[in-house]
Amino acid sequence: MRRTLYGGEYFDPAATLGCGQAFRWERTQDGFLVFAQDRACLLRREGESTVLECEEGDLAFFENYFDLARDYAAINARVCAFGIPRLSAAARFGRGIRILNQGAEETIFSFIISQNNNIPRIRGILSRLCEALGGERAFSGRTFRAFPSAEALAGQGEAFYRSIGCGYRAPYLAKTAGILASAGTAGLYALPSPQLREALLRLPGVGPKVADCILLFAFHRTSAFPVDVWMEKAYRSLGGTVCGREKIASACAEKFGALGGYVQQYLFYFEREGNENGIHND
To answer: Which segments constitute the HhH-GPD domain (predicted)?
Structure first.
């Protein structure tokens, strides 16, 4: 087991995992157990630092997964430099958030499942999916299931996806799995963001918001700005006047450029968690 310490305030596991990027993780007594593709790690805070524990050969994978080579202090400062008081407050509140580099297949499936769904149900569906189709792995004295391969996902029909609780999303998942198994995702990484978004939108079950989530959380296209009901509220709190989620996403992408995804995560987390922590009142 490899134990690595990351100092500073710009890597907070609770904030990073709690802002809607990923769903395959569990709380432990003192931190988090995170599953990504076919690997697992433990995260916990020790004082002002974060401890990451993983298998010796998985350290580079998780350093990339949590985007640990990037200077988030500089990103946070650039977001605050927009000079928008509420955005600056959100950036300070969520300064420990990092944008994950997740596997494309897992992210595509997760966010198709996420549509019109709540987080406990999303996590339950993904758990059943992995239990049924994922290979067994061992980590830290326990077993877990890997996220299934595209071929395993494509080998199931609509009835299977309904049986694990996917509901109306079942035909979308069955068809998208077939496309991913046939075409793969490797070629997507080289596409410019507009063409990549168009390719994602051609997948059954992927609409604009889901495409933007995949762009941001799998392909790290940080100009993407996913908009849901929380982000509509956050946008209004900044004094925004554009109507319609796609138009809001376009307006924010234009205003914030390559910082848009970071802005989105800070605002999303602040909108959901700030009130709960007594930081702001609406």
So the answer is: 113-272
CA distances to 46, 204, 225, 243 from 257, in Å: 35, 28, 10, 20
Place 115 in a pLDDT band, splitting at 50, 70 and 90.
very high
**For residue 109, what pLDDT is reported?**
98
pLDDT at 279 over 60: no
Mean confidence (pLDDT) of the chain: 95
**So what's the pLDDT on residue 275?**
60
Catalytic residue among 209, 233, 247, 255: 209
Enter the CATH code of domain 103-215: 1.10.340.30
Q: Kindly list the domain boundaries of the chain, sorted by start residue.
A: 103-215
**Residue 22 token pair:** 């990923």
Mean pLDDT over residues 171-200, rounded? Answer: 97
Question: Residue 278's pLDDT is what?
Answer: 45
